[in-house]
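Translate sequence into structure tokens.
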Amino acid sequence: MLSAYEPFHARTMRLDEALEVIVGESNTTILSFLPGKVAYFEGHAVGDRYLCVRQD
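Result follows.
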């Protein structure tokens, strides 16, 4: 996990746990759960959420 919020930055945890702690917290965070393929982005603004999927 990459996060602007230091306690979350550079942590590894199960996906369900990671989503529980970051969704709605308004701390810019990126979760990579299939490296190079799928990531989740949570931004500072309410509703600023994206599922990022790389298509080859």
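Note: The chain has one domain: 2-53.
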